[in-house]
Structures are given as structure tokens and as C-alpha cells.
Amino acid sequence: MSPSSWRSTPGGEEVLREQAGGDATESFEDVGHSSDAREIAQSMMIGELHPDDRHKIAAKEESHVTTLEDEPGWFSYLLLPALIAAVITLLYRIFSGDSE
């Protein structure tokens, strides 16, 4: 596949590189490619994996994409100090109210 074809691929070069060296059939089918894309794919098919060798395929690696849930945001950094301040304020009001 030429670099100009990579640009016409909606996912770009990165998507193609992620699938390189492995069986991309399932990923290809999940996307729902055009008939032109299917013709191009047929020209790239090298062969079929023997059923006895399927267990040798390495499991997909975990994605190394970070998401917002993986990293604590500003809210997480403010939540604990805000709770501590609220408890201190509450205790101050309770104990300062008793002394009056």
C-alpha cells in the first residue's frame, strides 16, 4: 500500500501500523469498508492461517492510550483539601458555639 493510500484511509497510517504483522481481518470487517477497499484487501492477502496454528498468535496487547479516568484531574486534587476544610469548619463551629 502506497503512502498516498494511507492518506485516503479514514484512520490514516496509524491504524494500518497497529494491525501490521497480524491478522487484521476482524478489524477490517468491523469498520465496514467499501467494495473498492475490499478489492485492494484481496490483493494484499498472503494466505490463510492453519487452524492448528491459531493458538500461536499473540493476544492483542493492551492499549497504551491514556484516558482522563487514568489520570487524576484538578477535581481530585481539590476534593480532599475541600473535605478537610469542611470538617475543620464544622468542628470549629461546633466547639466555638459551645464556649459562648
From TrEMBL:
Ranges in a coiled coil: none
Family in the record: Belongs to the cytochrome b5 family.
Keyword tags: Electron transport, Endoplasmic reticulum, Heme, Iron, Membrane, Metal-binding, Microsome, Transmembrane, Transmembrane helix, Transport
Name by which UniProt lists this protein: Cytochrome b5
InterPro entries the UniProt entry points to: Cyt_B5-like_heme/steroid-bd, Cyt_B5-like_heme/steroid_sf, Cytochrome_b5
Regions that span the bilayer: 74-95
Keyword Secreted: no
Keyword Membrane applies: yes
Membrane topology classification: Single-pass membrane protein
Any one Pfam family match given in the protein's UniProt record, by short name: Cyt-b5
Subcellular location: Endoplasmic reticulum membrane; Microsome membrane
One GO CC term on file: endoplasmic reticulum membrane
Region (Disordered): 1-37
Example of a GO MF term: heme binding
Top-level taxonomic group: Eukaryota
